[in-house]
Write a structure and sequence with these properties.
Elements lengths: L1 H7 L7 H4 L17 E3 L36 H8 L7 H6 L17 H4 L7 H6 L11 E8 L25 H12 L3 E3 L3 E2 H4 L3 E3 L6 E4 H11 L4 E8 L2 E3 L9 E4 L4 E5 L16 H23 L18 H6 L6 H11 L3 H14 L3 H16 L4
Parallel strand pairs: 2-3, 2-4, 2-7, 6-8, 7-10
Antiparallel strand pairs: 1-9, 5-6, 9-10
Helix pairs in contact: 7-10, 13-14
Bound molecules: zinc ion (2 copies).
Length: 387
C-alpha cells in the first residue's frame, strides 16, 4: 500500500481541483487524489503566441533559479534499479531490456525543460507492477479512437483514410494512420468509432482571447467519454482538431487523460498548422513528417499514461514529460528499456515482431530516422550475446 500511495501521488499527477487557485502553472498534488488527471502536454501560461516562438511556449511560468526542481539524472546503478532484475527472462527478452547504445540516458535538463521545472521521482518497473496497472484481458483489449469534429469549420475535420482528397483538409494525418500506429505500438486491436460532432459531446467552449480560435473544455469531453466507454475497451481516446482548455484560467492544453477511468482526449489543432509554428517555409514533405511524428508521439504518450506508465526520468523516451513543443520535438518516438518492459508486462508482445512491424510503418510513412533506429535496434537484439 505504501508503494501504491507513493505512486498515486507521483509528481506528474495533477488534479484540476488544485489548479483552480493557480493561474500560471499546474499545482502538483502531494496527497491522494480521488480523480487523477494527467495534463498530457503543453499548456500556455500566458500571452499571445507569436508563430516563431510557439515551440518554446512553456507549460509553466519561468521560475527563479532558487525554485529549480533540483533534478539529478539517474546514474547507471539507479537505471538498473529502475529496470529491476531480468533473471529468469528468456534470452530475447533479456536482450530487449539490456542497456545499449540505442538509448540515451537522461541528461541534465536545460533551463525551462520539464525536469528542470517539475520534481519527478520516476517509476521503476517494480513500482509499475506493484501499482497493478490497467492490464489487457481477453475481455478488455480494444483501444477505441473517437474522432470529434467541428460541426462546421471550413473542412477542418480529421481525414479517415491516408489518401488525400483534392480539397485538402486542415489536418495532415488520418485517423486510419493513427489507429494503425497505436495498434502496432501497443500490439492491441484498435477501432475507430464513427465520428461525432462537438455538439453531440455537449462540451462547453469558448473563443480563446489570444488565438481567437474556438476551444472546448476538455473535462467535459472526459465526462462524455466515461459514459460512452465500450465494455471491451482497454482505453477510449477522443481525438479532435479543435483546441482544448482544461479550465478557464488556462490558455490551452494539448491533451488530458484520466489514469483511473481509461478515457483521454487530445487535440491536433496546434500540431497541424505549420504557420502557427513558423514552419510554413519548410518543404511539404518535411512538415508532413514533423506533424505525423508529433501526432504519433502524443498519441502513444497519452495511451501510455492510460495504461499506467508514468513519466520517464531514466532515458530519453516517448514517456518523458515535455514543457514545450521544442522539447517534444527533441524526444524520441520509442520506449526506453524500462518502459518497454512495463509494456511487455502489461501486454505480452514479441519484441522483435513488434519492432519489425513498427519499422515497416516508419518506412511507409517517411519517418526515416525512426526506421533506421529500428534497424539498429533489431540488429542489436539479434547480435548481443550471440557469439
Ligand atoms: Zn505525460
Ligand atoms: Zn522511458
Amino acid at each position: 500500500m505504501v508503494a501504491r500511495a507513493r505512486l498515486r501521488t507521483n509528481l506528474y499527477t495533477v488534479t484540476l481541483e488544485r489548479m483552480q487557485g493557480d493561474r500560471t502553472r499546474p499545482t502538483i498534488c502531494k496527497r491522494m487524489a480521488r480523480h487523477l488527471v494527467v495534463i498530457v502536454s503543453t499548456a500556455s501560461w500566458a500571452g499571445a503566441c507569436e508563430p516563431a516562438s510557439c515551440r518554446d511556449e512553456p507549460v509553466s511560468q519561468p521560475r527563479l533559479s532558487s525554485l529549480h526542481s533540483g533534478f539529478v539524472p539517474p546514474n547507471p546503478g539507479e537505471r538498473q534499479i529502475g529496470l529491476g532484475t531480468t533473471h529468469g527472462l528468456s534470452d530475447v527478452l533479456t536482450r530487449s531490456f539490456a542497456v545499449s547504445d540505442s538509448f540515451r540516458p537522461m541528461p541534465t535538463p536545460a533551463p525551462g525543460e520539464w525536469l528542470a521545472e517539475f520534481r519527478e521521482t520516476g517509476q521503476s518497473f517494480n513500482q509499475f507492477v506493484e501499482a497493478r496497472p490497467n492490464r489487457a484481458s481477453p475481455h478488455r483489449r480494444t483501444i477505441y479512437i473517437l474522432p470529434i469534429d467541428p460541426e462546421q469549420d471550413g473542412g477542418r475535420w480529421l481525414r479517415e483514410s491516408p489518401e488525400r482528397p483534392d480539397s485538402r483538409p486542415f489536418d495532415r494525418v488520418s485517423t486510419a494512420v493513427l489507429a494503425e500506429y497505436a495498434g502496432l505500438f501497443y500490439d492491441l486491436p484498435v477501432r475507430v468509432l464513427p465520428r461525432i460532432t462537438a455538439v453531440e459531446v455537449g462540451a462547453r467552449g469558448r473563443i480563446n482571447r489570444f488565438s481567437k480560435q474556438r476551444q472546448l473544455l476538455s473535462t467535459d469531453i472526459l465526462a462524455y467519454l466515461e459514459k460512452k466507454l465500450p465494455h471491451d475497451a482497454r482505453a477510449l481516446i477522443g481525438l479532435t482538431t479543435i483546441d482544448l482548455y482544461p479550465e478557464p484560467a488556462w490558455n490551452f492544453v494539448f491533451g488530458q487523460a484520466s489514469l483511473s477511468k481509461r478515457v483521454g482526449v487530445y487535440s491536433l489543432a496546434r500540431y497541424h498548422h505549420p504557420a502557427f509554428y513558423g514552419e510554413s517555409s519548410a518543404a511539404a514533405q518535411e512538415v508532413d513528417a514533423l506533424v505525423l511524428r508529433r501526432s504519433l508521439k502524443v498519441l502513444v504518450h497519452e495511451l501510455g499514461h492510460m495504461f499506467g506508465v508514468e513519466h520517464c526520468i531514466y532515458y530519453l523516451c516517448v514517456m518523458n514529460g515535455s514543457n514545450h513543443l521544442r522539447e517534444t520535438d527533441a524526444q524520441p518516438l520509442h520506449l526506453c528499456p524500462i518502459d518497454l518492459r512495463k509494456l511487455h508486462h502489461s501486454i505480452g508482445f514479441e519484441p522483435l515482431a513488434r519492432y519489425r512491424n513498427l519499422g515497416s510503418f516508419y518506412r511507409e510513412h517517411g519517418l526515416d530516422e525512426e526506421a533506421r533506429w529500428i534497424e539498429r535496434r533489431m540488429a542489436e537484439i539479434a547480435g548481443i550475446g550471440a557469439e
